[in-house]
Amino acid sequence: MHDGFITALNTQKVTRYWINDITENLVNVYTPGYREKQFTFKTFLDGSVGNMGLRNLSQGKSQPGTSDENIFLEGNGYFVLRNDKGRLVYTRLGEFKFDGEGVYRSKDGQAVQGYILNDKGEIMNGAKPVDAESFVDTAFDGGAASVPTTNIKLWIDPSNGKYLGKYEEFEFKDDGILYGKADGGKVMTPLYKVAIINFHNPQQLFEVSEGQYIETVDSGRPVVGRGEVRSGLIELSNVDFDANTAYYQQAQMQLSLADQMVKSHKTLLQNAIELMSS
Length: 278
Fold this sequence. Notes:
By secondary structure, the protein is α+β, with helices and mostly antiparallel strands. 23% of the residues lie in helices and 36% in strands. The chain has helices spanning 4-27, 132-135, 241-277; strands at 37-44, 47-55, 62-64, 71-76, 78-82, 88-91, 97-98, 104-105, 111-116, 124-125, 128-129, 139-140, 143-144, 150-151, 156-157, 162-163, 169-172, 177-182, 187-194, 196-199, 206-209, 212-214, 222-224, 226-231, 233-235.
C-alpha cells in the first residue's frame, strides 16, 4: 500500500538536497571554472529520489584573465595537470602562469601538461613524430595514442635573458600550440602543444577539489579533446542565474508543501494512536 507519510518525508529530504545544490550554484555564479550542479528527480512508490552529483558541462563564457599566460578552452575537454605525486588531474580553469623556474603551472602549483613538438609542429614520441591520425586514437596514461605528456617549460637563460636561450617572446595559438618568437617575431618555432583530454562519460569524473577532477571506472579512459585555446582569457562559471533563481522559488514551494504533508500525517497518526488507546 502506498504510504503518503513516507512519500512526504522522502520529498522533504530530497528537496532540501536540491535547495543546497541551487544555493551552491548561486554562490558560485562568478567563480571562474565552476560547473553548475544539476539535480533531477526519480519517483518511486515510496516517494522521490534525487539524482545528485550531476554537472552542467556546457561552455562557460570567457573573461580576461590575470595574465596573457592564462588560457581559455572553447570546446569539449579538459586541461591536464600533474601534481607532485605524479597523479593526473583535469580542469577547465586555465588560470596558469610560468613559475620562477619556467614551469607552466596552475594557481595551486600543479604542472600543466603538454606534448613536445618538432620544428614542423609534429608531436614527438621520443625521437619519432606521431602520425596525426594515430594521435586521435584512444588516449592512454594522459597522452593520446600512448604518447606521454610532459611538463611545459620555458626557462630563461641568465646569460641573454631569452626563453630557452633563443626566444624573446612566446605566444599561444588557437590550436593550443605554444610558439617561441625570435628576431622581432619574424621567426616562430612550435615548442609544445597543450594537452586537451576528454572522456566518453565526463559526468562520472570525480571532483577531488573545486574545479578539478580525476578519472573513474565509469568515466572511461581519456580520449583526445576538441576545441580551440585562446590566450589571455579564462572560463567563467556556466551557472544560469535566472534559471537557478526560478528553481530556488520552486524548491521552496515544494519544501513548504512537503512540510505541510508531514505535519498533516503526524496529526492523523497522533489521532489514530489516541483513538486506539481510549
